[in-house]
Amino acid sequence: MEVAQLVTVLIILLLVATGVALLSRWLRMPYVAGLVLAGLAITQLLPQRIGLDASLVLNLFLPILLFEAAINTDISRLRSTVKPIALLAGPGVVIAAGIIALVLKFGLGLTWIPALLVGVILANTDTVSVIAVFKEVPVPSRLSTIVEGETLFNDILTLVLFNLVLNVNTTGSFSVLGGLQQLFVAIAGSILVGLGLGYLSTGSTGLLARLDDPLSSILLTVAVALGTFQIGQVLGVSGGVAVVVAGLIFGTIGLASHVSASNKLTLLSFWECASFAVNSFIFLLIGIEIDLITLWQTLPAVLLAVFACQVARIISVYGLLALVRWFDRPVPWHWQHVLFFGNIKGSLSMALALSLPSALAERSQLITLVFGTVLLSLIGQGLSLPWLVKRLHLSPLSTSRQQTEQLQAQLMTAKAAQDELDNLLRSGVLPKAVYEEMRSAYQVRVAGAEKALREIYNRRPNELDATVGNLTKFDAIRRRLLLAEKGALNDAIRKQILSEEIARSRLQKLDEQLLSLEDD
Questions:
Q1: Separation CA 202–CA 228 (nearest Å)
Q2: For 353-387, how does the pLDDT look when each residue is reduced to its tens digit (9 = 90+)?
Q3: Which of 180, 256, 345, 423 is a Cys-bridge partner for 349, taking CB atoms 3.0 to 4.6 Å apart?
Q4: Cα–Cα distance measured from residue 191 to residue 179, given in angstroms and rounded to the nearest whole number
Q5: What is the distance between the alpha carbons of residues 466 and 470, in angstroms, rounded to a whole number?
Q6: How many angstroms from the chain centroid is the CA of residue 5?
Q7: Burial of 295: CB neighbours in 10 Å, binned 0-12, 13-18, 19+
Q8: Predicted model pTM
Q9: Closest by Cα among 191, 180, 189 to 235
Q10: Are the CB atoms for 442 and 418 separated by under 8 Å?
């Protein structure tokens, strides 16, 4: 495509994406579903037919999406939900991939390798549509964390399993022991690459600590995201997994220790915009890429694939989460409905379908199958998910809870401003007199919020509206404190500071306290 035509196409796509954003907000429909429908409609407006390029999606779009998801992941929140996330993102992906492969193998007559490839591709879930709904409809933070964590970590397993099946297709042989060994080497190698590059960039002597302006920090994060992916691919491990690990290191260590508040805001805003732009282009191009005539001809096969995805999700969600009650807080039944219905396919499924080797005999059929399934998933479940979440009334906001959150917002913002003032004083930007005057003004806000929160916190539960769970926020805080206590005890055991018998007794009491807290 010539440069002039490329610019014309980009202008059209940007205008369409902007129009879809406005229309989606007015119609209260998911943005990504609107993009796909718009893509179907604007094909004739483009000067030349374009499509999704596999190399572009894998080497540019995918690292951006994975790094943005990882850098925004709060590991401290994941700690309280690690068990259900591990079930859904581990055995859940394997079970779903196996069920989908079986249905397509015997329902469509596919051979095992193509069936397994599609099974792995469609076992992946995309969180973009679901989290967009959560921003409009309040949900418990634990449910939101499970959704985000599952998507992040099932991306990891999906990428590893996909490469494993491709390797079997290339070598023509497979053994259980050899497969497990390859799986371990791929995951371990990817983690080591991500850890190494993440720490080199964010450690106390890393590049991030030496940069003092947001633009240089943005360039560094982009280089780490794209470079980690390429280095992982060159070393024969999963570049996607390495990017996720590097992003977690950046979000946990780099942004917390070596970036000022203003730089952190700029960095996160940049990555939010980058992810939004990439998703917009991908979902628009999904609609443009789909040929409605071909889709109609393959509709029975697509409907079978959609049916297989739903059956697999029912078993992996309701079946596996029924086991959680034996070793962790149970996941409420109505939360499981959201997890099942949020089984929406997205950009990673498209990217993996396009990366199928050209030598694969059924490649075009498989791509059409995946594209059709993604389309129906985005339109069907994407449009109906907001209605379902609202109907379930997962987290109604009471007056007292709104008051609590407003006070928490006042306290957090004032303390963040005081921290930034401390940095400005140390760096010599502010004179001491100006610093003290501005800090005292924020201290008045801090003291007022702390006093009001203390009064709410000290009320007896029966003085609050018991029907709406007003103590949930404080239970979330208590949970973080109890998890911090557990971490300290585990460290003491590893360092042989405390005897295991004493520490285990205390750990058991902490677990009992954690289980007694309300879901947040």
A1: 14
A2: 878 887 887 888 888 898 889 888 888 887 787 78
A3: 345
A4: 18
A5: 7
A6: 35
A7: middle
A8: 0.74
A9: 189
A10: yes
